[in-house]
């Protein structure tokens, strides 16, 4: 289930929580984060190729590509047997920013984004299959895929380089629950 939890930096107890998609989208819009639901145009069997997945969401992808001048799209999948899962998890768990916005659509599985739009607030957003999240450029954030990741995401980029992060060096991610405990 999609869920948003608001924390005050330095406090472990949540200030507010919601699993209502409209409420989550409204709250995130206040900080410039897009959060919406997408549906495939047809059935998508297990083991679908990147091209089949992209084609199933073509209308929504094209809308975003035209609106934001996006240049590339790909599909990433991680499973518990991925040989670099621990290395990738640790990389994404480090707080970072991008010079461009980060767009992820969850085709399958789930993941937990933490957003730090200012020095006081930390917002956790559990995304699940059907959720799209777009984090604006410059917003500090990190991502947890869990100890046993199982997700497939469509990623959209404005540059051919794709995912390029600048790490803040702040160990803040260690202060909040991981996906498996959240």
Walk me through what this model shows.
With 182 residues, this protein is an alpha+beta fold. It has a domain at 38-111 and 127-175: Jelly Rolls (Sandwich). It contains four helices and eleven strands, in the order ββαβααβαβββββββ. The chain has helices at residues 21-29, 50-56, 58-68, 85-93, and strands at 3-8, 16-18, 34-37, 72-78, 96-97, 102-116, 121-128, 131-135, 140-144, 151-157, 166-167. Strands 1, 2, 3, 4, 6, 7, 8, 9 and 10 form a nine-stranded antiparallel sheet that branches. A two-stranded antiparallel ribbon has the order 5-11. The radius of gyration is 16 Å and the shape is globular. The N and C termini lie close together (12 Å). The mean pLDDT is 92.
In short, what is this structure?
This protein is of the alpha+beta class and 182 residues long. The chain contains 4 helices and 11 strands.
| Major pleated sheet | 9 strands, antiparallel
Could you list the spans in which at least 5 consecutive residues all have pLDDT below 50? none
What's the pLDDT, averaged over the residues?
Answer: 92
Tally of extended strands? 11
Strand % is 35-45%
The global form is globular
Q: Which architecture of the domain at 38-111 and 127-175 does the CATH hierarchy give at level 2?
A: Sandwich
Radius of gyration: 16 Å
Look up the CATH topology of the domain at 38-111 and 127-175: Jelly Rolls
């Amino acid at each position: 289930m999609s869920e948003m939890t608001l924390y005050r930096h330095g406090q472990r107890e949540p200030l507010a929580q919601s699993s209502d998609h409209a409420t989550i989208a409204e709250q995130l819009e206040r900080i410039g984060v897009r959060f919406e639901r997408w549906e495939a145009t047809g059935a998508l069997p297990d083991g679908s190729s990147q091209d089949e997945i992209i084609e199933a969401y073509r209308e929504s992808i094209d809308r975003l590509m035209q609106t934001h001048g996006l240049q590339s799209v790909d599909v990433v999948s991680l499973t518990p047997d991925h040989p670099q899962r621990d290395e990738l998890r640790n990389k994404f768990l480090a707080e970072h920013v991008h010079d461009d916005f980060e767009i992820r659509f969850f085709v399958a599985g789930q993941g937990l984004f933490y957003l730090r739009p200012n020095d006081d607030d930390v917002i956790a957003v559990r995304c699940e299959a059907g959720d799209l999240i777009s984090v604006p450029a410059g917003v500090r954030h990190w991502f947890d895929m869990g100890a046993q990741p199982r997700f497939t995401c469509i990623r959209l980029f404005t540059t051919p380089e794709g995912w390029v992060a600048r790490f803040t060096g702040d160990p803040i991610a260690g202060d909040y629950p991981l996906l498996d405990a959240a």
